[in-house]
Design goal:
212 residues, mainly alpha, 2 domains, 67% helix
C-alpha cells in the first residue's frame, strides 16, 4: 500500500465539480438550492439537465480515476478500494467546501464497477427483487446497501468487502433521507423520465452570486 494513495484519493474526490458547474452557470451556491446536496441529481434539478450530465460524467471520472491511480502503482483490489473510499470521503467532506459536499454515490458505483462489476450486477438484482416486493425505491436502496458488503464478499470470495463495504454503506445511509432524496423529488414532480428531461429546472434563489 503506497501511503500517498489515501490523500491522493481524498483530493480527487474533494473536487466539487457539481458546485463549480452550478456556480458558473447560475452564480449561486448549489448548497442553497433544492435539496442542498452537492451532487448530480440536485444539479440536474436545480441548474439544468445538461449540467447534471456534466456533473455525472465528472463523478464517474473521479471514481474510476481513483481506482486507476491505485492500480497504476501496482495496487491490488483492496488497495483500490481504500483509495476509492478516500475519494468518497473527499466527496462527502470536501476541503474546498469547508467540510460540506455530496453523497458520492455516482463516484462510488463508478469505482466499484472497475473493482467488481459482478458484485454490482448482483446488487442490482437484489434491488429489483426488493423493489418488486415492497414497491418502494427508497426501501430497496436501503436494504441493498445494508446487504451489499456481505453480497460483495460472497461474489468476490475475499474478506475485505465486509469492512470496506460496511464503511461505504454507513456513509451512504447517513445521508439517505426521504426529505432530501432527489430521486424521490423527481418521482413526485414528474410522471416519467421524458417529462423530467423536458421540464425546466426548478426555481431557486439566485441571491448568492459572485460579488453579492
Amino acid at each position: 500500500m503506497r501511503p500517498f494513495l489515501i490523500p491522493a484519493g481524498y483530493l480527487i474526490g474533494s473536487i466539487p465539480v457539481a458546485w463549480i458547474i452550478a456556480r458558473l452557470v447560475t452564480g449561486g451556491d448549489l448548497r442553497q438550492m433544492g435539496s442542498g446536496n452537492v451532487g448530480v441529481m440536485n444539479t440536474a434539478l436545480s441548474v439544468a439537465r445538461w449540467a447534471g450530465l456534466l456533473a455525472f460524467l465528472a463523478e464517474v471520472a473521479k471514481g474510476m480515476g481513483a481506482v486507476w491511480l491505485a492500480r497504476t502503482v501496482g495496487g491490488d483490489d483492496f488497495t483500490a478500494a481504500l483509495t476509492l473510499g478516500a475519494a468518497l470521503v473527499g466527496t462527502r467532506w470536501s476541503i474546498w467546501l469547508r467540510g460540506a459536499g455530496g453523497r458520492g454515490n455516482t463516484l462510488g458505483v463508478a469505482g466499484l464497477l472497475l473493482i467488481s462489476w459482478l458484485s454490482l450486477v448482483a446488487s442490482l438484482a437484489l434491488w429489483l427483487l426488493v423493489r418488486r416486493l415492497t414497491h418502494s425505491n427508497f426501501t430497496a436502496t436501503r436494504v441493498t446497501m445494508i446487504v451489499w458488503p456481505l453480497l460483495a464478499g460472497l461474489v468476490m470470495q475475499v474478506w475485505w468487502p465486509l469492512p470496506c463495504g460496511a464503511v461505504f454503506s454507513l456513509l451512504f445511509l447517513s445521508t439517505h433521507r426521504k426529505e432530501t432524496d432527489d430521486h424521490l423529488i423527481l418521482k413526485s414532480q414528474w410522471s416519467g423520465v421524458r417529462a423530467f428531461l423536458r421540464a425546466p429546472p426548478r426555481k431557486h434563489d439566485n441571491a448568492h452570486k459572485f460579488g453579492e
